[in-house]
Write a sequence for this structure.
């Protein structure tokens, strides 16, 4: 007989799921604001980069992130 889903709602599982949700939200927010920071002029506190350079930075980060996941995460 399978366990009911309600039996998983113990404090340890709720805390782990809440931490994952919070970190995911912060990661998505950071990824959304980062290009705006890159494009904002220096006088306003940004880096003042042009769109092609921002695209290159994000692409390089994506490639490095993918390679890191391939080589440094344990096999599932």
């Amino acid at each position: 007989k399978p366990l009911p889903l309600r039996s998983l709602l113990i404090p340890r599982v709720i805390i782990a799921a809440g931490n994952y949700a919070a970190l995911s939200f912060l990661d998505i927010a950071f990824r959304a604001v980062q290009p705006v920071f890159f494009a904002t002029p220096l006088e306003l506190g940004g880096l003042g980069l042009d769109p092609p350079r921002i695209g290159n930075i994000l692409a390089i980060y994506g490639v490095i992130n993918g390679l890191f996941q391939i080589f440094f995460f344990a096999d599932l």
User: Anything to note?
Assistant: Helices lie at 11-39, 51-72. DSSP finds two helices and no strands in the chain.
